[in-house]
Design goal:
The protein is α/β, with parallel strands linked by helices and about 190 residues long. Helices cover about 35% and strands about 25% of the residues. Strands 3-2-1-4-5-7-6-8 form an eight-stranded mixed sheet. The termini are far apart.
Length: about 190
């Protein structure tokens, strides 16, 4: 890429530039890294601001290694964290475990699915039929860099590192769009 090309291009836009953001809700930083860390890393490297609100975040270092910003639930409630009033395009990524235990998170997911203005990506087992009907399994192929950084992230928190698979499977709403570098997979 030519140095300064992106900055040059941004100055030639006639109207407001559409920005995207990715909001992640999970029960722990470890769950985020293990289940969707590579996909989130790739989105962050593509220029998306990726913010993680993890109820039991604990050590945020693994998330920072992946280029993700952490948000403290004590200082920013879920409804404020998920506000769409800033005009940005948004993806909402949610763990099944948090969805099952938090009413506010469930309401946000169902609202996003009903309005179809927000890309929704979910991970983990146990989604209710009302969610499963609107979704399909999608595989995100991790970049080489995502695999390396995802491999280092758990070690920063002192947890064992499992081998990093080349793909991560997410449950996605195809009515909005597919995640970057992702493809639908057959079930069965």
């Amino acid at each position: 890429m030519v140095p300064g090309f992106a900055a040059q291009r941004a100055t030639h836009v006639d109207g407001p530039c559409l920005r995207y953001r990715l909001d992640v809700l999970a029960v722990s930083a470890a769950d985020v890294v293990q289940s969707a860390g590579g996909w989130l890393f790739d989105r962050a490297r593509a220029g998306w601001p990726v913010s993680v609100l993890a109820v039991g975040a604990g050590d945020a270092q693994p998330l920072r290694i992946l280029g993700l910003r952490t948000v403290d639930l004590e200082t920013k409630p879920v409804s404020e964290f998920l506000s769409t009033e800033d005009g940005t395009g948004r993806t909402l990524a949610v763990s099944a475990e948090l969805f099952a235990t938090d009413v506010a998170v469930r309401e946000q997911v169902f609202t996003a699915l009903d309005r179809r203005l927000t890309e929704v990506a979910l991970w983990g087992p146990g989604w209710p039929p009302a969610v499963n009907r609107a979704m399909t399994n999608v595989q995100h192929v991790l970049s080489a860099a995502a695999r390396v950084f995802k491999g280092y992230a758990p070690a920063a928190a002192g947890t064992p590192c499992d081998p990093v698979e080349p793909t991560e499977t997410l449950l996605c709403d195809l009515a909005t769009s597919l995640p970057v570098d992702s493809r639908p997979i057959g079930l069965g």
